[in-house]
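Example for tutorial group B:
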């Protein structure tokens, strides 16, 4: 790159000064015709990026500033992992364990079922305030396990569902294997530190997806606070009241795990899930992951619009309106202005139409969508 700073020496010959001036003029003239920067890969449609698009592209490439031992963010609709760090490393996951506990418990228990709190359930410091012998609904126990992260509630659910903690944990691990959570192993239903009690960022996001697909659990984890059956409960997930659009899902904290958080947020244009394990500050780092998604990605509906441009006349004179099924694409913001659409339409010998609606980004075809042809006007009488 040419450096336009003036020389520190005043004794340079005037001829040299004229040469540098001539070079500057040539560079200026070259820039006028060059247009914005071009990304090429040797094909016919190079991408010409504006400065704003370049900034957006760089923001995606750089990713969020995260110091957690592991982290990831996904788009919920597509399950696409958009950024990750050590996403497959097995690490202690603390009370995010209770998402699996809730899912497995609801396989055997109904939310309105009343169960008795066993003495074995009173364990650890985190509690919803149960006492042995209490009669509590399963729904109240779900709130107790997932809001204040009550170990007593998780243990009560486990024993009520399976008869013992050991049998319940076997079920948890069976589900983890069936669901492809390959880096996950449970030693208990509450998440207190134990040898071999681990999961990964990728597995926890997949587990959270399943939990949020359950309407009962989804309602519970989206609740900032509640008084149920006489138990006042406050959610440990502070993002529910501090991050716009947050609706879940679970915190976890132990000496071995450090700070853990799975968070979900929706702003109407996108739906994100993010997780951090071993974070120095989960309520700062997880919003950075969510911001990374909302600041740089969007869903775009690219179906054919109903307008005069999307009509075609067959060789026999019949007129068709072009239609396509909705096929939204998840795109980076900088990509939106670079898209090209192409309609490949043909007619058979007897004037039957066929076609594809194509979306291209530079030289890459993003998608093919079959075109539907609606007859607007039949062929004129011969």
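The residue assignment follows.
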């Amino acid at each position: 790159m040419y450096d336009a700073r003036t020389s520190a020496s005043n004794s340079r010959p005037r001829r040299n000064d004229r040469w540098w001036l001539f070079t500057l003029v040539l560079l200026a003239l070259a820039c006028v015709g060059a247009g914005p920067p071009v990304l090429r890969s040797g094909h016919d449609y190079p991408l010409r990026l504006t400065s704003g698009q370049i900034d957006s592209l760089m923001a995606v490439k750089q990713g969020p500033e995260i110091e957690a031992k592991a982290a990831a963010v996904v788009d919920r609709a597509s399950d696409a992992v958009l950024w990750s760090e050590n996403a497959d490393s097995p690490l202690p996951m603390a009370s995010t364990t209770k998402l699996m506990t809730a899912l497995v418990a609801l396989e055997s228990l109904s939310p309105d079922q009343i169960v008795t709190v066993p003495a074995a359930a009173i364990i650890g410091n985190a509690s919803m305030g149960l006492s042995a012998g209490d009669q509590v609904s399963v729904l109240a126990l779900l709130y107790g396990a997932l809001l204040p992260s009550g170990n007593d509630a998780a243990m009560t659910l486990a024993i009520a569902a399976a008869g013992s903690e050991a049998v319940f944990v076997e079920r948890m691990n069976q589900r983890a294997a069936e669901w492809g959570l390959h880096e996950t192993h449970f030693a208990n239903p509450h998440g207190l530190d134990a040898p071999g009690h681990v999961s990964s960022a990728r597995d926890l996001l997949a587990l959270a997806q399943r939990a949020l697909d359950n309407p009962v659990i989804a309602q519970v984890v989206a609740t900032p606070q509640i008084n149920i059956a006489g138990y006042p409960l406050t959610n440990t997930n502070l993002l529910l009241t501090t991050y716009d659009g947050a609706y879940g899902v679970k915190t976890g904290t132990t000496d071995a795990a450090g700070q853990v958080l799975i968070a979900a947020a929706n702003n109407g244009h996108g739906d994100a899930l993010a997780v951090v394990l071993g974070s120095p500050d989960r309520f700062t780092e997880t919003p950075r992951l969510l911001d990374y998604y909302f600041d740089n990605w969007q869903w775009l509906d690219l179906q054919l619009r109903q307008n005069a441009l999307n009509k075609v006349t067959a060789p026999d004179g019949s007129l068709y309106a072009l239609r396509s099924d909705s096929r939204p694409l998840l795109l980076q913001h900088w990509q939106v202005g670079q898209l090209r659409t192409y309609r490949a339409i043909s007619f058979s010998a007897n004037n039957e139409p066929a076609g594809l609606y194509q979306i291209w980004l530079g030289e890459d075809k993003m998608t093919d969508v079959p075109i539907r042809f609606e007859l607007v006007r039949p062929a004129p009488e011969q």
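The first strand starts at residue 38 and ends at 39. Compare this with the pattern of hydrophobic and polar residues in the output above.
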